Amino acid sequence: MESISKPTLILDQEKCQRNIIRMLDKLKAQGIAFRPHFKTHQSGHIGEWFSALGVKKITVSSLSMAHYFSQFGWQDITVAFPLNILELNQIRTLSESLNLGLLVLDPKTVDDLGKNTHHTIALWIKIDVGTHRTGLASQARIDIDHIIERIQHYPHLQFRGFLAHAGHSYTSRSVGEVESIYNESLRILIDLKAAYISNHPGIEISLGDTPGASMVEQLGEVDELRPGNFVFYDLMQEEIGACTLDDIAVVMACPVVAVHPDRHQWIIYGGAVHFSKEFLNVKEGVSCYGRMVDFLKDGWTTKNVVTNPYIASLSQEHGIVQCTEETFGLYQPGDLTFWLPVHSCLTADAMGSYRMKDGRPIEHYRRHIYD
Amino acid sequence: MESISKPTLILDQEKCQRNIIRMLDKLKAQGIAFRPHFKTHQSGHIGEWFSALGVKKITVSSLSMAHYFSQFGWQDITVAFPLNILELNQIRTLSESLNLGLLVLDPKTVDDLGKNTHHTIALWIKIDVGTHRTGLASQARIDIDHIIERIQHYPHLQFRGFLAHAGHSYTSRSVGEVESIYNESLRILIDLKAAYISNHPGIEISLGDTPGASMVEQLGEVDELRPGNFVFYDLMQEEIGACTLDDIAVVMACPVVAVHPDRHQWIIYGGAVHFSKEFLNVKEGVSCYGRMVDFLKDGWTTKNVVTNPYIASLSQEHGIVQCTEETFGLYQPGDLTFWLPVHSCLTADAMGSYRMKDGRPIEHYRRHIYD
What we know:
The structure is a homodimer.
Chain A: E1 8-11, H1 13-29, E2 33-34, H2 44-51, E3 58-60, H3 63-70, E4 76-82, H4 88-97, E5 99-104, H5 107-116, E6 121-126, H6 141-153, E7 157-165, H7 175-196, E8 204-208, H8 210-215, E9 224-225, H9 235-240, E10 250-260, E11 265-269, H10 272-275, E12 280-283, E13 286-288, E14 290-296, E15 299-301, E16 310-314, E17 318-322, E18 336-341, H11 344-351, E19 354-356, E20 361-362
Parallel strand pairs in A: 1-19, 2-9, 3-4, 4-5, 5-6, 6-7, 7-8, 8-9
Antiparallel strand pairs in A: 1-10, 10-11, 10-18, 11-17, 12-13, 14-15, 14-18, 16-17, 19-20
Helix pairs in contact in A: 5-6
């Protein structure tokens, strides 16, 4: 840690691999295909920890990210984002070299795709299971039929099944709530599969979200799960109940640069461009952008997290840390402090690089987006 | 625009240069030194538009950014962020090759700096003029005296004066409020200067914030101003009253990827990793993450911004756009849409690259932070 002089995202390989193995074992035991979402870690290096365990299929959130992971040997990639027909060239290139899965929501886009590509592409119909971000309503059978009809018009397009993301589980704060959202989402997909499988043998249903995959014991008749955040977890997942504080596999190291005894605050070098602006409401009118852990020789401990200082606000490069009278004296300007992030996906993306606890750098997609 | 297939930040050079010239002329007419903050554009390329107009001194928010701009020939750089003593090596290197200004808030850091450097470094004492982010209270004369005494102990350290950022102007929504914050902030610095100048001839006072520099007509007895955001402006500045919608020099181009007629929403490819999570509260319980402009052949028009759709929420790569019944039909999946950002500094940082309206790429610091 002595070499760290500015905001640095530190990865605990052991915790991360423990998270991966736990999820993999759970899904394997229930006969569910595991297609982890790599948008959280966005790392070819971390991807190799999955492939070493036998994982062969992944999810990403953009075609550019699919291209990045294809360079690390991944051959079966679903882009869990509505098909962006403006990236037809990228789609064409990727479909030539790997098993590409895309999401469709309207017949015209299917036609544009079918007419302009020649290699096999798997198409999932995106279903809205209650999140109301995107997807077709499961009742919209005329629209669904129309999309399938257009898919079947092109021999190289394959109707793969129904895919959903139960993102509304993020507002849950108990196992009961998460279970009820998961079960309702799954029921919607199961009903759709039942309605279409006789005419379309082999179709599958795919569901994804870390709270559901982490908290629901019996995952039911789902063919494939696509959780992503579980690889690191974060304070938001801990708040939902999807992990413990000790499961969180990344912390941000930030130098203290000023202290304000009158209001028991520190200023750290670590702002919105490092953490992202994601926050939790810890109580009425109080926002939290990160919580402090205590760093030990070989890692960090979360045992004082509840009484430790927290990040109360962020501007571009500054973090304002709220302490109490008791904790204010813990650190001085020139000291390094360590913070659990609220949303590890966005923090990892903002940072664009990791270091292991021993200082070794870890690859991240972000540094390649300017190529 | 035909070549744009994914989220792209587009820069209107004419608007940007008009913003620069307006600020430069205003400060020149009032005999105030202009030290623009380059943390907004973070671009060596855009920096050249300033140097072409005779600007010689700049502000940045980190030592790494100072290093970046030194490579473009900038020789007089203030890092407007509390001195991070952990970056002593970087400070040493930079102070060897350019006129480096740093901010100090405590005597121990001054000692650590003085003992470990040998080249001239200008030190500003950071004053809190009411923002309560960081800085010493102007009444803390014993602390201020102590810091100055330590600075004077080291012949290569130069006490440069008092520096403040009136960031609380961002909560203002009228010229009157901004003026009152500006004048009060300036009065605090003028009083300090008056108290110290006889013993420290040549000290100056430096103030910075875009609302104050843009909205206050008579800028008074300030030696130096350091606005940054004015180079692009954004929806937040427009809300404050610091600019018009037509002054905003950047827009995000985002493909529409799905439409939801039942709730008059579009999904665009453009999320938190592109815009940042900064938002405005447009009314009780309604957040806005961006507003749509209409793109013309040679630029964009803001004339329909008020009635146009707006971005109602952002996840990692998705933007949810709220339309009305009237505007819902404007665009379809596969169309490009164009969005004024809420906070251009964070959007530019998240994107890490620009394109001119004619497609030419513009350099951004972000792509070098992994070197």
